[in-house]
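Example record

Each entry pairs one chain with its bound ligand, 4'-deoxy-4'-aminopyridoxal-5'-phosphate.
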Amino acid sequence: ANLFGGLEEQKPDALLALIGMCNADPRPEKIDVGVGVYRDSAGGTPILRAVKAAEKILLETQQTKTYLGSQGDAHYVELLRPIIFGDAGDQDRIVGVQTPGGCGALRLGADLIAKANPEARIFVGQPTWPNHMPLIECAGVKMVAHPYYDRDSRSITFDAMMDALNEARAGDLLLLHGCCHNPTGADLDLDQWKAVADLVARNGLVPFVDLAYQGLGNGLEPDAAGTRLVVEAAEQALVAHSCDKNFGVYRERTGSLFIKGRNRTEAGKVFGNLMSLARTMWSMPPDHGAAVVRIILDDAELRADWNTELQEMCARIRALRARLAAFDPRLAYIDGQNGMFSMLPLSKEAVVALRSEHGIYMADSGRFNVVGLSDESVDRFAAAVVEKL
Ligand code: PMP
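Structure tokens for the complex follow.
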């Protein structure tokens, strides 16, 4: 018998294919707004000063590489806690573990849900990050898609979303983007978050917040406001957090998963289950990224420098958004959105034409990375795009 005979060919990841096409394009004026990483005004993604400094400290002071255990770096987790949850009450009901990136946090959360209640469903707004559904369904959890954003009217379809969420039963979960919605950039405003929090409390729903871009929308605190509202309203909640973007350590796979239980005892039981599930997957998370984040957050000077750099990244994104919005009324909505991404209501033909005519590389969905633009390319990009709208 041929072990691999039953495998089907897999399509290469669409975004990786786009990167390949862009790299192969010889035109010097090409514009890469495909891949989702921060870029500075020179088009690079350099290592943050604070990260470089922390890596030096780590190199000089680390005494051992012995195992840390399945929870990873507990001090890293505790330093993140106030950044995510502030000084909200009920903290003794919230447990946290380090994970391999935000992806690891989502996957660990999904595995816990599948183990705890195979009947639970996760409601997820459309469109969402393309990896959300495969990643969570792979753990065996059923997902229910519901409306979230309408590309053509460039707005959140809040009433349709709330209607759909009324179908959720007690114990069902809501997958919510904490800030900087990927792929649309369209975040709930505070009143909308409050309405979701009320629904969560009223119907016994469980928020599962994906907070992968904290600090890149409007700042660390504002970007956590929605998360805090729904977590406080809920009896039980999950938060998948990532430091890969806001510390710029993408490949170091630096994430965490926090879970709120009904009480301390339940939270302790959840923690034990997270440990045993982690052991069956990665056993222990990779250390380097979390150690670097821990060193930065633990040192007043490095922490202040990181904050400065994060605010610079955030300000650059906001400035590019404002400039696109000012270019043409049809792009005005981009300034009201957050994070690295927005979506253009372009046909697939238009996206392909922008590629061949102008060397502009964006996803077929019309999602583009705002911060892939530069002072030099932003108006050129806007002019080419509005032609196709
Ligand atoms: N959630 C969302 C919405 C994302 O966009 C990403 C990364 N693209 C992640 C989670 C995962 O981040 P990480 O690289 O930390 O696994």
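The CA atoms of residues 347 and 366 lie 8 Å apart.
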